[in-house]
Inverse folding.
């Protein structure tokens, strides 16, 4: 498929389909992370006693939730990188044509 | 505490300074054009840029401030780690690729990409300068704090030295040398923080028997007019008849009556702290009738669950308060940390140093990995310092270097030198952002001066020297301000002034240039005004009672960020017809 194998990162920058796809995925993942982060802030502010419970391995919720937010950010960024790695479908069709 | 000068620390410190200066000279030839000076020619590899993100972002406040806050108050410092890291998700998922697509040299380029408006360029240039200056102050203050015990210099000498070195780095090769200094610093910081954490886990936790005076309060009387300092009833000094603070920070009891745990795994370390009792120190300062300041440092045996829960530090007291406004203050701070990262001009311009959007995305992922890993380590370094028996009750910023000294002198030397490079890396990024705002946005776009490419570089170098000089003066003037507090200001102003416009420009076609100008102006002025009229500023800056403050809580974000969005929408709707 001409153009596909040689697709470079710089070509991706110009294609509206890929830009729109990346933007959509980014916003969806952002919404998920925002809900989890907002949950952390709201629980801390209004139910701080929940943070003191130790549900796993003798570690309290404050640390478990905090670590989850940090590790979760990395996991989410890797998912985003993986989903946005290839060009969007309509771009590939365009290249093939 | 009067620190003994470490020759190893001095040697390592000067070796690192020499290495960074050599790097700047070596890279100088790559920064002859404006694109080279402001954006490193767009040719930085995404991995290098990702680590440079860490070097740019992990400032003195992150390294020294967070570790110190955890060492003295427990979990609360980790709230900053979480908020600072979470902000990178906004940068990656919402801002990174569009910003790379829209801009060239500065943040204003991106906001102005659709309008070609001098008004936008001017407003955003001012907001860039304001945020950069507010961010510069704590870095320079941090440099002075650090260099005092390291080299035995006075605060102003330390600030001067840092200012001179960092200005030299920027002037020689602009963004090219800045990037590699930040790459070097980011790598060293993450690697040696990891090594320090491994040493903490390997040492484990040990109960220390209270030595003579180990558990008794300490006092400091600071007689400002005559400059005398009385420590624990004696003039401060190391000689006969003089006294000094003794190092603190020890475990009172371990679970199951153990005296020492031996090496611990990462989870076992946290679990053991949770089940132990540790002596924490609090301080109280009072003005004396004769004008002197009396500070009393008091030890308190504290159970692990109370150490590892949020709400102990004064900044986070809202978590355990019954007052709704105190809770809003906490939510507001966490909101500013979340939105602030993607609004900091010196971070955003790093997206212009890579070749395309894919590289911008990949470098942000590398940045998140390295910054996130470092922030996990801050919890261990802070708790390690808390139990190291080496804390200085008067200076929480020295917790991490002093923890390193509790292992050996060389580690102290390396950690101190790395802490110094954290200042260099962040300040150089800020100076570039400020120089870009003045030369590219203000002179070339607003004033419409015809400046050649080479001329832009020459003026940018001159502006860098001026900004460096301003940073030195402010670093000296603000010596006594709390470092982390000032960083919080910068985040709030950046999030309120820049975030609404950036988000709405990307996702709402109805955005007009008048809407952007109004939102940036209102966001900047309202957040700055709110901070200046807040209880924290009344107490810490004006010396007034915080209860008399005009605004109901200190952190502005929860009001001023939505206000920025609202102003943008209303003004855009009102001016829509007049915009072609």
């Amino acid at each position: 498929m001409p153009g596909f194998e040689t697709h470079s990162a710089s070509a991706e920058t110009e294609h509206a389909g890929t830009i729109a796809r990346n933007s959509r995925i980014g916003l969806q993942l952002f919404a998920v992370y925002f809900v989890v982060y907002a949950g952390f802030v709201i629980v801390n502010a209004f139910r701080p006693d929940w943070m003191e419970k130790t549900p796993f391995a003798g570690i309290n919720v404050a640390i478990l939730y905090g670590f989850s937010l940090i590790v979760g950010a990395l996991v989410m960024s890797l998912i985003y990188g993986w989903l946005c790695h290839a060009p969007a479908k309509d771009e590939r069709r365009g290249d093939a044509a | 505490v009067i620190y003994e000068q470490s020759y190893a620390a001095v040697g390592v410190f000067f070796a690192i300074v020499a290495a960074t200066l050599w790097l700047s000279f070596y890279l100088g030839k790559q920064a002859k054009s404006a694109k080279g000076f402001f954006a490193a020619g767009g040719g930085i590899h995404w991995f290098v840029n990702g680590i440079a993100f860490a070097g740019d972002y992990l400032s003195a406040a992150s390294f020294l401030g967070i570790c110190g806050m955890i060492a003295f108050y427990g979990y609360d410092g980790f709230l900053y780690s979480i908020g600072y890291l979470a902000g990178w998700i906004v940068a990656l998922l919402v801002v990174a690729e569009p910003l790379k697509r829209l801009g060239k040299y500065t943040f204003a380029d991106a906001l102005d990409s659709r309008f070609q408006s001098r008004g936008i360029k001017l407003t955003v240039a001012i907001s860039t300068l304001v945020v950069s200056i507010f961010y510069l102050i704590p870095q320079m203050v941090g440099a002075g704090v650090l260099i005092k015990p390291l080299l035995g210099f006075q605060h102003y000498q330390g600030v001067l030295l840092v200012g001179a070195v960092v200005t030299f780095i920027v002037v020689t090769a602009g963004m090219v040398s800045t990037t590699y200094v930040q790459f070097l610093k980011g790598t060293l910081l993450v690697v040696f923080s990891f090594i320090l954490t491994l040493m903490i886990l390997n040492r484990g936790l040990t109960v220390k028997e209270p030595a003579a005076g180990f558990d008794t309060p300490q006092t400091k009387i600071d007689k400002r007019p005559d400059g005398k300092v009385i420590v624990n009833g004696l003039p401060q000094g190391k000689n006969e008849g003089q006294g000094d603070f003794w190092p603190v920070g020890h475990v009172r009891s371990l679970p199951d009556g153990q005296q020492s745990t031996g090496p611990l795994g990462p989870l076992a370390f946290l679990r053991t702290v949770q089940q132990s009792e540790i002596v924490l120190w609090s301080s109280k300062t009072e003005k004396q009738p004769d004008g002197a300041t009396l500070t009393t440092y008091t030890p308190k045996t504290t159970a692990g669950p109370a150490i590892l829960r949020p709400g102990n530090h004064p900044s986070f007291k809202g978590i355990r308060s019954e007052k709704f406004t105190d809770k809003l203050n906490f939510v507001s701070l966490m909101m500013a940390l979340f939105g602030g990262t993607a609004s900091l001009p010196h971070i955003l311009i790093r997206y212009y140093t890579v070749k395309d959007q894919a590289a911008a995305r990949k470098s942000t992922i590398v940045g998140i990995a390295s910054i996130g890993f470092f922030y996990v380590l801050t919890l261990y370094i802070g708790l390690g310092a808390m139990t190291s028996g080496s804390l200085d009750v008067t200076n929480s910023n020295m917790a991490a270097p002093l923890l390193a000294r509790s292992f050996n002198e060389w580690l102290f030397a390396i950690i101190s030198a790395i802490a110094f490079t954290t200042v260099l890396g962040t300040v150089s990024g800020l100076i570039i952002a400020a120089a870009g705002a003045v030369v590219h946005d203000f002179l070339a776009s607003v004033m419409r001066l015809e400046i050649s490419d080479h001329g832009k570089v020459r003026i940018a170098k001159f502006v860098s020297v001026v900004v460096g000089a301003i940073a030195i003066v402010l670093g000296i003037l603000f010596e006594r301000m709390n470092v982390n507090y000032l960083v919080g200001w910068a985040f709030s102003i950046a999030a309120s002034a820049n975030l609404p416009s950036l988000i709405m420009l990307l996702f709402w076609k109805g955005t007009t240039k008048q809407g952007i100008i109004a939102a940036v102006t209102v966001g900047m002025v309202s957040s700055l005004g709110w901070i200046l009229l807040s209880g924290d500023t009344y107490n810490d800056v004006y010396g007034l009672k915080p209860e008399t403050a005009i605004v109901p809580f200190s952190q502005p974000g929860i009001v001023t960020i939505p206000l920025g969005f609202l102003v943008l929408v209303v003004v855009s709707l009102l001016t829509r017809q007049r915009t072609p």
